[in-house]
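Final report, closing paragraph on structural work. Over the funding period we assembled a curated collection of sequence-structure pairs, and we close with a single example.
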Amino acid sequence: MVKLLAVRNLLQSQSKRTIWGWLNTITNKVDESRIKDVGPDRAAAEWLLRCGAGVRWKDKESVLKDYNSLPPGGYRSLLIEEIDATGSCIMSVGFPHLRGLDHLKKLTLHKCNYLDNEALPMLAAVKSSLEELQLSSCGDISDSAIKSLSCLSNLRHLLLYDLPEVTNREGCIEFLHSALPKCDIEFPYARVSELKTDKE
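Its predicted structure, as stored:
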């Protein structure tokens, strides 16, 4: 009986994950007609806020996180300069929204549980403007995705940590230093087990 309950609970949890994954995919879906109507920055802001991320407009101080606080008009005058996707449900399927974000300078991808290797090569869409990138605590990002960041030619600061699928941290650092000589790269650890305690 206990085994049957355990199996039932496992199936229910997997079913819930499947439903959440499906809903997140819908939330991330790119609507090309919306981009055409309101411009890339407004459409990207709508996507990001729907997914629980935040945006900071150019020449503004604060990060906007409430979808209902999006301005009702002036769509094309507001330009995204910073994205904070901490804890959001953004997925690779939504990354085409980044096309046309010509003023994006800073991007934080922290605890993005649905982020995978397919997303990072799409950052090439903002390679001319992006200066700062934080990628941390994202469990499905591996070495190949880290190396794809080499296309970000304008990057000046890159912070990486807590990426447990990365198997060769030193190799990734060396590769990125070679490709991005003007970028300050910090990658103190890929796994928590690599951290040294005070006793060591």
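The helical segments are 2-28, 32-38, 40-50, 143-147, 169-179. Residues 7-17 have pLDDT under 50 and may be disordered. We thank the funder for supporting this effort.
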